[in-house]
Each structure stands twice: as structure tokens, then as C-alpha cells.
Amino acid sequence: MSLLPYLPAASLALCPEEQRWLIDGLWADQAVGIVGGEPKCCKSFLALDMAVAVAAGSACLRRFPVTRPGTVLLFAAEDALHVVRSRLAGICAADGLRLEDLDLQVVTAPSLRLDLEADRLRLEHTVAVLRPRMLLLDPFVRLHRIDENASGEVAPLLAFLRQLQRVHQVAVVVVHHARKGAARQRAGQALRGSSEFHAWGDSNLYLRRAEHALLLTVEHRAAPSPEAPLCIQLRANGDALALELADDDLTASQETAPAETIDDRVTGILAQAENPIPLATLRSLCRIRTATLCQTLGRLAEQQRIIKTTGGYALQPQQ
Question: 20 to 30 A Cα–Cα from 94, which one of 65, 148, 258, 275?
């Protein structure tokens, strides 16, 4: 009997920092995971925003840069195709993009069931031909006729999606509902059905409403996650209709501070830190918008004044 292939741990390949993210800080490269939340929490809007960002190489939610843009394959089981197109066009308008320019492919089959071998084979063949960077399935409840509470029935379907990810190096995003009345539970534990869903994800995004606010919780299996939920909102501006981060707690004077002052503020905080500082923590300490902070960090990195590490940002070591 032949042996399984194996290597010493020290011989395993390292993943360069720039290849660890599909969407910087939001979704790991080639990750499988869940976009979850109760009804009317904009789950589909968030998933479509991710799709547009990856297909265009633009910033998701106008804040999170896409590291590895590419083809996106989408199956929207609940919405009519004209609704999907309208939502995608609204997101593109918010980004100054043309939907016609994106390599965003939409499956038009009336149904897709992962519990049927024929449908699984068709999906895998489509992924093999298109070689998408991201596969988006929305929502999970329309992809089967199994008992979502039965681990033995859920696990094989998730295992198939994991196999797709590994064989075809594709990120798999599945939109899934949370249980009604589970708002006080930890985000991952609030997902409807088997605990397999929470355990399966490499990157998971959870949406929930708190009074008038829409909160986004980010979880990663192998990377630091934001310490607190992010507040987002659905904003309309003419034809543009898209989600974006809400930074209403920041003052206009902080937003318009001179670049040199912001540079000094960031480098001053990093100089006082003993260890690298994650982006979310740095934003809280600097008290500036995420977009402004990301622009500042990019500028300082180009000037070789700071570096990005696995633990966050730090000053460039003195030679």
C-alpha cells in the first residue's frame, strides 16, 4: 500500500503577506465562509459588494482594497435576474464603474441543488472552465432540500464546497440566514441550523441590527479580526445604492486635517508601541476615518517609513 505524501513542517511553503487576502482584512485569499445575518440585514448587498470589488479590483465598501482581483461567478437563488442586475449596477455607480466592464458571471439556471450529484458536477465543471477568483452562492437555504439542523446532512455539502476551493483555488462565499430572535447570541452561534456552518468558515461576516445601526462582525480562522463590530449603512446617491462604513462619530476637522499632521499622528502612535498595531486598533487610536488612515498608511509605506506585518503596522526598523 502506498504512503500518503508528507513533508517536514519546516519545509511547508510560506504564504507571502500580500497573498494572504482576497479583500484586505475582510476575506482571506481562497477562503470559504459565510455571510450571515437575520432577514433584511443587507446580506445580499454585502455579498454583491464583495463580488463587484473582486471583479473590478476596487475597494469593498469603498474601504477594503482587493489584493487579487479576478473573475467572479454568482448564483443568486432568491432574487430575479433583473433585481440582481439593478443592485450590481447601483454598487458600480457608487464606485464609478461600468457593470459592462466587469468579469462578473451570473448563473442563470432556475435552480442549483448541492444535494444532487448532477448539479454538483455541473457547478464544478463551470468553475473549472471559468476559473473564478470567487464563487458566490446566495442563499444556502435555496441550494438543497436537506435538514439544515442535521450535521450529517449539512457536512457533505460544505465538504463539497471546500473541495471546490482546494481543487480550483477559489474563494467560496455562502450567504446564510441567522435564527430569528438570536440577536443576543455570539454572531457565529446565531446562524440557523447545524454548528457545521460556523466551524466551516475561514472568513465569516455577520450582519445584525442594533436599533438604527447595522453592525458588521468579521471573523477569521487564521488572521486577526477587528476587535469591535463595524458600523455600516446602505446609502443612496442618485443611481448609486451601496453599503459603506459609517464614520459619523468622527468630526469634519479630523477628516480634513493636513496630510503632514495625519502622518505625524500615525507615526507618533507607532513609535510609542512595543508591538505592531492592527488596523482597527490604529484607527481607534488615531481617531480618523478608515479611508483616510488607509491612504496615510499607503503613503507612509511607499516612503518606507512604516511596514505591514502579520500583527499589524509598525515603523520601518532603522538600518
Answer: 258
Say which CATH number the domain at 295 has.
1.10.10.10
- 275 and 240 in a single domain? The answer is no
User: To 10 degrees, what angle do helices 151-168 and 117-130 make?
Assistant: 20
The CATH code of the domain that includes 117 is: 3.40.50.300
pLDDT tens, residue by residue, 163-182: 999 999 999 999 999 877 65
pTM here is: 0.75
Determine the structural domain holding residue 32 and report its residue range. 16-245
